[in-house]
Amino acid sequence: MQNKGEIPWYWEGTYLFEKMDDQARHAVLGKSHRQIFRKGATIFRADDPANQVFFLEKGLVRIFNLSAQGSETVFWLCIDGEIFGAGGISGCARQSVFGQALDHSVIHSLKREDFEDMIHRYPQLGINVITLMGARLRLACDAVIEKTASTTDIRLARGLLRLSRNFGSWDGEEIIFRKQFTHQELGYMVGASRQTINRALNAFARRQLIRFEKRTLVIRNVDALASMTTTVE
Question: Domain Cyclic nucleotide-binding, which positions (predicted)?
C-alpha cells in the first residue's frame, strides 16, 4: 500500500474524542439525544435550522448538496466517531447541505449551546473539532475541483483510494473493501452517472486494477491505481 507520507492527512477519519478519557466522552454524550436512522433516512436538509451538532456513534452518513438543476455533489462521508452538521457550531442560522444515512446509523444530537459549553470544559474537544473541520474543508475543496478539472477515471481512482483508507482492509497485495458501495453511490461521490461508473469500473477490471468478489470490491494493484492521479497535501 502507499506509504503513510503519500496519503493526505485529511483522508483519515477524525475521532471526536481523540486524546480524551472516557469520563469526558460520557459527559459530552450525556448531553445528547440518541437516535437510530434507517438506511436512506434524511437526517437534515439544507435550510433546516443549524442549532445542533451530530455525532455518529455507528453507521455511515453522507454530506452532500444539490444544484439548482438537481445534480448531487457528495462532499464527504462521515464514519464512526465523527461529528457532522458543523453549521451548528459555526453560528450559521441554517444548514447549507444535506445529511443522509447510508447505513443503519446510531446518531447523537447535541444542542449548540451544550456543545459549546463542553468545548469550554474540555479544550482538547475544541482542538479535535478544528482538526476535523479543517479536514472537511479540504475534502469539500477536492470535491469541487475534481468535479470540474479531472476525468471520470481519475476522479474514480482517487475516490476508491480515499474510500479504502476507511473502508478497506489490507490483505497482502490487495485491499478488500469491508463495505459495498453501489455504482450510484460512487457516481454521487465523483460526479458521474451510474452508467459512466459502471463502464469505468469494467475498464479498471480489464486492466487488472480491481476485481469483484461477488459484490465486494477488491483493489488488486494499488500502485497502478495511485499512478493515475496525483496526491497533493
Answer: 16-119
pTM tops 0.85: no
CA–CA distance, 83 with 168 (Å, rounded to integer): 21
- In tens digits, the chain (233 residues) has pLDDT values of 444 335 677 777 789 999 999 999 999 999 999 999 999 999 999 999 999 999 999 999 999 888 777 777 788 889 999 999 877 676 788 898 999 999 999 999 999 999 999 999 999 999 999 999 888 888 878 777 776 767 889 989 988 998 898 889 988 789 999 888 889 888 878 878 899 999 999 999 999 999 998 889 999 998 898 888 754 44
Residue 15 CA to residue 195 CA, distance in Å, equals 35
Relative orientation angle of helices 22-29 and 112-121, to the nearest 10 degrees: 160
CB within 8 Å of 71: residues ≥ 6 apart: 191
Per the structure block, which three cell numbers stand in for 67?
A: 444544484
One-letter amino acid for residue 150 of the chain:
S
